[in-house]
Structures are given as structure tokens and as C-alpha cells.
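Show me a record, fold above all:
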Amino acid sequence: MSFSLESILEFSRSVESQCGRQGVPAKFFKKNWIENAEWVVTCQSNLRKEPSQKNLECYAQAIHLAAQFLKSQEQASTTELGFLSQHLFTLDSEARVLLPNAVLNFPKPVDETKETLITQQFEQLKTLFLSGVDSSIGQIEEEYRPTPAVQVFLNSDEFTALKKYRDTVLKNDKRDHTFFGIDFALTMKYKALDLLINAFEQQKTLEGIDNVMKTFYNTKNKSTREAKSIYDYLNTGQNLFTWFFGLFVKTTTVTLIDSLKEFMEENFQDKVERELEHPCY
């Protein structure tokens, strides 16, 4: 049984703040997972040896810092989440003794079966999209720089706006994303757009950029009940209006991609590139 990273962060912070100021200095998380995990164990040991609100605050802080480290890495393994989840149980039991008047809203565990299904569905989406990109154009050697036109594309206002939306909106999205009864994890919409953006950024030629764009739009209306295509997933709205009128209404994400496509067509449709002219040494 484990808890989501956000739940671990929220509960540990709540316990830490309800301890009051017990003289525990502020800290930053350590540079690697092992050091953060060891500090959690050390604080737990200190709390067991000497139960006090100060040691409880230190323990809660250590759990919170370890969770912050995992969040900064944008990934957390089942083992790491399991480790912090076990310590969250201990933190809760100790807090109920040492903070009898505290308001402790212990989180609900993650449905691991559902999380596994969500991950599998995203991997299917990723595989289908990347196979379409890879099969349409040969791979370009890494030592070659992107052509000038590709650099213009990647530095355009439209592409910058798409990346900004990914980083400032979708990365911390709190809305629900459901389609045909399949509930995708909130972070998956961020990952889907990140997948598309990375595919653009890896291209060296306009032909490659055009291929990524066409592959994306070719997945429109290609979803099944078991798996959703990248276009349809990014075009899934968060309200009833968008859901019911999905054939006619586009999400902000797809609207931004449409603008990028229009920019490309207006500026590069008839352009002839001298591709791979300047290798990078």
C-alpha cells in the first residue's frame, strides 16, 4: 500500500507545521535519494529514542524533504514511494500521541491496479506515436546541427508558448481527465505534450519537423476503448461542454499546436532547405 507523492508532501508538511516552532532549523533536500532516505531513518530513530514534538517535527521535515527530492527528479519508483509511505504511517501514529489536538487528515492510498493501467495506457500512446515518427523518416546523426529554419521554428513565439503552457499549466494540473471511463493520471497529459515537444526538439531538418507534425495530426480520432491516441488525449477537455462537443471544440493544448502548425505552413511551406550543410564539431 502506498500514497501519491503529493499526498506524502501534503501530510508531512501538515504535521511539521502543527508541531509549531520547536527549534528545528530549515533544511534543503540532499543531493541524492540515499542520503535523503538515510536522514529519514535517522530522524525516526531519534524520535523513538526521545519522543518529543521537536523530534516529531524533524521527522516530518525529513519525510517532506525526501518527497521534495523525488518531485524535483520528476520521477519516483515504487520502492521509493513505498519507503516514504511506510514512514507516513509511522508519522501519523506518532503525531496522534504527541499532538493530541492536531487536525490530521491521513491520505487515502493509491489504487495500484489503476495506476499500473494508466502507465500501460501511456506507454501504448508513446509507442504508437514514436513508431509513426521513426518509420516515416531516417534518423539524422547527432553531430549535425539543426538547420537554420528548424532553429527559427524552435525559437518561434508559437513553440515557446506551447512549452510555457506545458511547464506552467499542465505540469501542476489539478483537473480531471477522463475518457470513455478511463481515468488518465493528471501528470500524463503533461507527459504527452512533453513527448510531442521533445520529438520536435530532436529534429535536425524541416522534413523531420513536418513528419512529427503530420504524425501527431494523423492520430486524430484514432483512439479505442483500451488506448487513446496522443492527439485525442491532448484534446480531452476538463468540462462537460468540451467533453460533449469534442468534435467541434478544441482544448487549449491543441489550439496552441494548431497555431504552431499555421506558423510552419506560413513560413516554410515552399522553403527549400540545404539540409545538414554545417556539421557540428
